[in-house]
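In this supplementary section we document a worked example of the pipeline. Step one takes a protein sequence of length 346 as its only input; no multiple sequence alignment statistics are reported here. Step two produces a three-dimensional model, which step three serialises into structure tokens for compact storage. The input and output of this example are shown verbatim.
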Amino acid sequence: MTAATSRADERVADVGLVRRLLIRPELGAVVGAIVVFAFFAGQSAVFRSLDGVANWLDPAATLGIMAVAVALLMIGGEFDLSAGVMTGTTGLILVTLATDYGMNVWAAMLVGLVVALAVGLFNGLIVTRTRLPSFIVTLGTFLMLQGVNLGVTKLLTGTVQVSGLRSASGYDSAHTVFAGTIQLGGSSFRVAILWWLLVTAVATWVLMRSRQGNWIFAVGGNEQAARAVGVPAARTKIALFMTTAFAAWLVGSILALRYTSVQANVGIGQEFIYIIAAVIGGCLLTGGYGSAIGAAIGAVIFGMADKGIVFLGWDADWFKFFLGAMLLLATLANRLVRRYAEEVRH
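The serialised model returned by step three reads:
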């Protein structure tokens, strides 16, 4: 009896703080971020300075907003290949309506939000009602949006770019809220960083503290079992697609307000970067496992590598090599962590 109790106690004791940390999906991203920071900081004083931090947090912020939303969708078992081009679509809507049609910037942003949410709703409805793979559905949406972006922009402007947002009504206030800067320690940090932190905090709360978070993990892990216990699987997945669309609108608006012009091909190819950041952050391609914080840290790794390579004077092509290497390493690490997590639970 005593021996049995002792063994039971040992099993309970084994699942302590260290083991709980080891099965966290963002563990690999945290380790990777520390290694990448140490590598670049050790070779570049600019990289580790406050100005340097502001410099590499800037691309991490816009990437991180999208990576967190994409991570939620991947945990729910789906993909959205239209996420990148949708940032361009919303940016084009904003600049076109505000410059060519004289609409207030805030009103133009609202129109862009409505269009983005409609696209997200469309993706979600098609995936849930037809049971087609989201990879195929959103690839179709990606191609349609790409065609609309190029075709409509050329039709209205004769070129593949719209510009002139700075002179539009409401630009100054919108720029301050979405694309301005804040001073910290004598360095300028983009407001987008605050939006990124807010999105990450909300997504983490939803995943870890809300019933909807349980639904997301459930439908991503086993949709049929989730339906059997009353989880609204279709509604959950539609909401996730619309969340990704909202994030695309936010990033598209931030970039449009920052640069005051938008190219018709902006965002194309970025959808894979978002997915890679989410995978580095601990998301599995099979769904049901991942972390919003991990995806945010994955974006930090990208930001550090992107600017760190520049600070060291390396050829920018090495960044692509870095992406591929990080994807392979993260996928392997996630698989091992998930396997270990399953062993701990059993």
